[in-house]
Amino acid sequence: MKQLVVYYSRTGTTRRVAQAIAEVLKCDVEEIRDLKNRAGVLGWLSSGMDATLKRLTKIEKPEKPPELYELVIIGTPVWNSTLSTPIRTYIVAYRDRFKQVAFFCTQYGSKSDVLKEMEALCGRKPVATLMLRRRQVETGEYADLVKQFCAYITR
Ligand SMILES: Cc1cc2nc3c(=O)[nH]c(=O)nc-3n(C[C@H](O)[C@H](O)[C@H](O)COP(=O)(O)O)c2cc1C
């Protein structure tokens, strides 16, 4: 099954997970790039506001057409208990072109409804989901959980 990992990362945590998944599955990966500057405290504040208001943003055109893949694995950091704005934008723009989907997210805490929200936004049940705390990524604990997630996808 041809798979694509699509992710956005503001500070590198979700990127580490995305790269680990792509390495295990040996599949393509696409980073979503936001045209809005989200660096620093101001970027943090405006990102929280954008997320809460469920705004969309302008993203660079992705290189890989999702319809060429059997499975699109979408990863986002959690912002104010919801999806990051760049991933919300990507899903809204491309959801009609997804076949199967799987989701992962990284967050500081341990609870949120983001995966359910991604399901509703995509209009599809995911074949697998993975929710990680930032600390699990920093300590390396995520590696085994990524392997389990990938094993479930390829079972
Ligand atoms: C604007 C903003 C809002 C956030 N809101 C939450 C939140 O509601 N719950 C949570 O657990 N973490 C929250 N976080 C923390 C991030 O989800 C977490 O650090 C994530 O791993 C960052 O991923 P990244 O390094 O790929 O950008 C927030 C971070 C930002 C920048």
SSE blueprint:
Blueprint: E1 3-7, H1 13-25, E2 28-31, H2 40-52, E3 71-79, E4 82-83, H3 85-94, E5 100-107, H4 114-122, E6 129-133, H5 134-139, H6 142-153
Parallel strand pairs: 1-2, 1-3, 3-5, 5-6
Antiparallel strand pairs: 3-4
Helix pairs in contact: 1-6
Average pLDDT confidence is 97
> What is the CATH T-level topology?
Rossmann fold
Number of discrete domains: 1
In percent, how helical is the residue content? 40-55%
N-to-C order of helices and strands:
EHEHEEHEHEHH
The separation of the N and C termini measures 11 Å
Binned strand content: 15-25%
CATH architecture designation: 3-Layer(aba) Sandwich
Low-confidence region ranges = none
Q: C-alpha Rg, in Å?
A: 14 Å
Shape: globular
CATH class: Alpha Beta
Query: Could you say which small molecules are bound to this protein?
Result: flavin mononucleotide
Number of strands: 6
Structural class: alpha/beta
Number of H- or I-type helical stretches: 6
